[in-house]
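User: Predict the full complex structure for these chains.
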Amino acid sequence: MTKIKVVGVIIFSLSILLALLSSQISKHNSANNDFLDIVNAQKAFTQDIAKNIFFIYRYRKTSTNELDKSIKAFIKNMKKKERLIVQEGAINISNKLEDITNVWNKYYLLVQKFRDTKEIVSPYANILLENLVNEIYHINIKLVMEFDELIKLHNIEYENQHHFSKILQYTLFITLVILLIYLFTQLKSIISFMQKFLSTSKNIITNSTIKELKPIIVEDNNKEAQLASKNFNLLVQKINNSIENSSISIEHSYNSLQHVESHIEDLLELIYTMQDDKKIDKELTKKEDALIQSLEELTTSTKKLENLKQDLDSLISIYTLKNK
Amino acid sequence: MSIKEILESLEFFRSLDSEGIELLSSFCTLSTYANEYILHYESEQSQNLEFLISGLARSYKIDKHKNEIFLYYIYENSLLTEIEDFKSSTLNFFSNISIVEDSLVLNIDYQLFKSNFLDKEKLCLELSCEVNTRSQKLQSLINREFIYDSVQKVSMMLSSDLEMFNKLKRHDISLILHIQPATLSRVLNRLKRNKIIDIIHGQIKILDLKALKEIVND
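Assistant: Here is the predicted structure of the two-chain assembly.
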């Protein structure tokens, strides 16, 4: 029973630990996903900016509203990302972010130049514009590549940081499963004992007689189950002994009554010889009647005791109980 | 004898006119039973009211040790069935009834008897008398079992039913009186020595009936 209690406490503690660890890992996963979402969004925004540049270059009269929106969204996202990176606290990622910021600044400067130059209508301005678009195209590719590297670095960092947590999580889970299997094997023997105990007790209660009272036989090594079965068997043995003792007492009473009967018969013979054949002594006759009645009652009692003994004999168990 | 003639000869139905006898005979049957036949078992239910026309029956119960507990004899021209509840349409047997001598039994459909006679307040007095007779037998049983000692039991049977006493074996008498055969023998010796009875070839002859009754009432 002590083992089961200790294992129960360990299982409870491990379950709480596992739940806390899982919650922590889940939080980290969520933060990781948020970071990846932001980086992917940044990539998408640079693409959008490049796409708008190409469109505006092709169709000069097109509004720059969409381009402005994409630039604003990129800058807003950039701030969120910086906050997440600070939380991560990884140096190589911070460096990479700095690189991205530098590339972005170049990119943004070119975009601003494009905006200014596109308003000027001259052959030289057209040549400048073409060069700018070409440059924007290359820097955009560089920016996307930088983002991909950032994602790669982040994933490596994430894997390094959570490797220990994962191993700990698996270890806790396997330990918990092993402990549960052990607990089940221990409980199985207790449940088996309880079932035997209930079945035997039920038999004793429901049977009208206590004939063939069987002891509980416990095969497992559980100390508590063995102690309980020993106590129960002792009780069963006491019941059988008490019935056996009652039977012996009745037999003694039965023999004693036979002795008394024999003495009364002698007394009756004495009264017969005392009585005169010619005279009837009323007092002696009354005494004779009383003796006849006493003999009758003694004989009846003897027969009743005999019947009672038969009843008790039929109740006595034929099983010899063994102390374990 | 026909059923009608039997009914007319019975004291129980004396108050009925010919029309009543005719009606009653329409739902009556006769049965004959041999000695030792068990007519009814304890707690059995019956739809018939039964009269012992001739012969002898006895009422008894069985205890848990299979011992027979004699209650009383049922003589001819008396009701065999017991009526526990006048409102009920079925009849229950309190004890086992067995035939002691070859008997003729009149069976009356109780439901028809009840609706045609008892419910019309006919034969109610006669039935009450029968119930009263049964009650007296039970009183006698209480005296025999709880009040009288062995000498009084034997004296009572000798004074009230000497014919039956001489007819039965000593073992059967001891069973009826619930005493040991040895006790019966002792009592008879005591009565013989006191010159109250005489035993000639196993048959009892009462010499002093007054003394015998005095023992019973003592």
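Chain B has a mean pLDDT of 89.
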